[in-house]
Amino acid sequence: MRIAVIADIHGNLPALDAVLADIDRRQIERIVNLGDVASGPLWPRETMLRLAERPMPTVRGNHDRWVGGDDPARMGKSDRFAHGDLTAAQRGALAALPAMLDIGDGIVAFHATPADDTRYLVETVRDGQLVRDGVAAIAARLGGVPARVALCGHSHLPHLVQIPGGALIVNPGSVGCPAYDDDAAPAHVSESGAPHARYAVLTLDAEAVSAEFVALDYAWGDAAARAERNVRPEWAHALRTGLMPRG
């Protein structure tokens, strides 16, 4: 059995289209979406329409929860843009997504951690950067979730971590947002280091689980130009480079 795992699209329609085309080329029929679908200064409404054409199990990310709220004045710029661009039905669909899903075959999916959609599962902040934490700390954040495979997103960084005697944790990286900054204490950046659209392919049988991490070329210049038109130069820089601007 093969499963494509996508996460953190953030309204980047050309990146999503590149990923879906690659999944189709590989003839993978099952896709799991780990949330943060639309928030960002790109194509929130069009992204939701594209995903409506491809129904798939999807969990709610923290930005899905915020965009699905009813008070734009309290939202950050990316969530506020998406909130204004989406229809009321699309916002409601995001808000109604489940926080966690049992996919079957011992696979569970959630956005960040099972208990908190804003907390990193695999990473910690060190010197203003996201870095992989120790296995014991990761296992503690995973908690007692019984799973063969645990799928998470949120950090936008691809990871594969085997908990001894427990779950294999898979973060596929971000489809559409290769770098961001977060000023919530402790302030930090997440940087994939390249502008490519990312996802993962799981292959499972009764005995083993394999994971392939995919990084795809796509028209990231078009996405960056869209961000610039919507007055988000830091997004444009991230989309072109996979890094945040310095200085």
Any idea what the shape is? globular
What count of structural domains?
A: 1
Order of helices and strands: EHEHHHHEEEEHEEEEEEEHH
Strands in their spatial order, largest beta sheet:
3-4-7-9-8
CA-CA gap between termini: 47 Å
CATH class: Alpha Beta
Number of strands: 13
| CATH topology term | Purple Acid Phosphatase, chain A, domain 2
Task: Give the number of helices.
Answer: 8
Low-confidence stretches: none
Characterize the structure shown.
This protein is α/β, with parallel strands linked by helices. Helices cover 29% and strands 26% of the residues. The termini are far apart. A five-stranded mixed β-sheet has the order 3-4-7-9-8, with no helix packed on it. It has one domain (2-241): Metallo-dependent phosphatases (Purple Acid Phosphatase, chain A, domain 2, 4-Layer Sandwich). The chain has helices at residues 13-25, 44-52, 62-67, 77-85, 88-95, 135-142, 220-229, 233-241; strands spanning 2-6, 30-33, 100-104, 107-110, 123-126, 129-132, 149-151, 158-162, 168-172, 179-182, 188-191, 197-204, 209-216. The mean pLDDT is 97. It is built from eight helices and 13 strands. A hairpin with a 5-residue loop joins β8 and β9. α7 packs antiparallel against α8.
Which terms would index this structure?
247 residues; alpha/beta; Purple Acid Phosphatase, chain A, domain 2; 8 helices
Summarize this entry quickly.
By secondary structure, the protein is α/β, with parallel strands linked by helices.
Describe the secondary structure blueprint for this structure.
Elements: E1 2-6, H1 13-25, E2 30-33, H2 44-52, H3 62-67, H4 77-85, H5 88-95, E3 100-104, E4 107-110, E5 123-126, E6 129-132, H6 135-142, E7 149-151, E8 158-162, E9 168-172, E10 179-182, E11 188-191, E12 197-204, E13 209-216, H7 220-229, H8 233-241
Parallel strand pairs: 1-2, 4-7, 7-9
Antiparallel strand pairs: 1-12, 3-4, 5-6, 8-9, 10-11, 12-13
